[in-house]
Design brief:
It comes from Polypterus senegalus (Senegal bichir). The chain is an alpha/beta fold. It contains two helices and nine strands, in the order βββββαββαββ.
């Protein structure tokens, strides 16, 4: 578990609807490891088709690095989806997410290979780097 320890110390069950037509998710138990996102309500963990759920081995290297190191650097940032052009950020703490503009849709190149992080100047921007991140801030000019 990456987040949520303050709400749930131990997760034994994950609740979802019975079928995909009701937005339920099917997991192959004891066969794969998964990254499962969802919400905690009334002491239970819930997930569904609208949440991001993926087999761990299908995550990109950037997503794995993001979960382990980089995503925490974007906690003060907000990702703003762009559904049609033109799109603009309206504050310095926003990253414009444009994956929804392509015919491929979600998950697109941006969400699979970039991280929205806060830069030294306080602005949020997309980052794609291969060097291990600085513990506090990543400079956008890193490789």
């Amino acid at each position: 578990m990456y987040k949520g320890f303050n709400k749930m110390k131990h997760v034994q069950y994950i609740h979802t609807d019975a079928s995909e037509s009701l937005c339920g998710v099917k997991f192959e138990m004891n066969k794969y490891q998964y990254l499962i996102t969802g919400r905690v309500y009334d002491g239970k963990v819930y997930t569904g088709l609208c949440n991001f759920n993926e087999k761990w081995d299908r995550l990109t290297l950037a997503q794995r690095k993001g979960l382990n190191h980089r995503y925490q650097l974007g906690c003060n940032c907000r990702i703003k989806p762009c559904y049609s052009l033109p799109c603009f950020v309206t504050s310095k703490n926003e990253c414009l997410w444009t994956d929804l503009l392509s015919y491929i849709g979600y998950p697109g190149h941006q969400s699979r290979h970039y991280t929205c992080i806060q830069q030294k100047e306080g602005f949020c921007s997309w980052y794609r780097g291969w060097a291990p991140p600085d513990k506090t801030i990543i400079n956008a000019t890193d490789p």
